[in-house]
Amino acid sequence: MPPAETIQSALVNAIQTLSRAQIASPRLDAEVLLAHTLRCDRSRLYAHPHAPLPADAARTFSAFIRRRAAHEPVAHLLGEREFFGLPFFVSSAVLIPRPETELLVEHVLARVSPSARIVDVGTGSGCIAVSLAVQLPSARIFATDISADALAVARRNIARHNVTAQVSPVQADLLTGLRGKFDAIVSNPPYIAPAERSTLPPDVREFEPPQALFSEDEGLAHLIRLLKDVPSLLSPGGRVFLEFGAAQGAAVLSAAKQMHPAASFSIVQDLGGRDRLLVGAF
Ligand SMILES: C[S@@+](CC[C@H](N)C(=O)[O-])C[C@H]1O[C@@H](n2cnc3c(N)ncnc32)[C@H](O)[C@@H]1O
Known about the structure:
The chain is an alpha/beta fold. Helices cover 40% and strands 19% of the residues. It is built from twelve helices and nine strands. The strands form two sheets. It has a seven-stranded mixed beta sheet with strand order 5-4-3-6-7-9-8, with helices on both faces. It is elongated. The N and C termini lie far apart (73 Å). S-adenosylmethionine binds at residues 94-95, 97, 101, 121-125, 127-128, 144-147, 150, 173-174, 188-190, 211-212.
């Protein structure tokens, strides 16, 4: 009988497999997947490197590594991803929450009143709406998405974080059909040009929903439609917060100013100095 695999040998083999498959962070991914398999912290793996790996754990881990080597995202394998300090369920129906979107949440929190009425357009996993609700327990939030499957994931996250009384999921095409006035309209809409599909990493291109990624007109179609529609739904002094791609700042700002000359707009950059957010006050 071959000697049982140890934690260390399983990790070494997995890192080799992931490196050969050109996975960007082979060690980190292997450690995260093994820690998840063993239901322990990553640090425990190094505290007991020579501990034998039970056969069922070895099978589970090797299935994870096969899937990761085929570029399936770690978040899909774990079924969740952290955003703004909270765990969110994810599936292939939603965009995996990105750390850069935390900037949008920070700017909304810095500028809205505690009891604001907010719409999160294209909520996906619900990460923006739920994070805002947790931080602003008196706010009322409508979380829209065109995808029923995405809204099913958002509903699970709304329940997971006990904000069902605050956050209402709504199936809608952007802002179509919404009634009433809101203090803030926030969105991380699809903004990648379809022509850029082949430049995306396979983890994104093959596994994340196209509806969450792509927008016509060089990635600007959803942003422009949103900018057109927001004024009729904003209360006086209401604000809009829109995430966009790093190369789209000038185009988004100029479209916004042209459409709404009386409003004031600014572009916010991320920590890497890239244009990332449009903030507009109406
Ligand atoms: C980039 S993802 C953002 C998801 C989530 N808000 C986040 O930041 O992780 C865009 C979301 O917009 C949704 N979407 C695409 N077109 C839409 C439309 N016309 N109306 C409403 N939602 C739309 C997609 O289903 C997807 O969930």
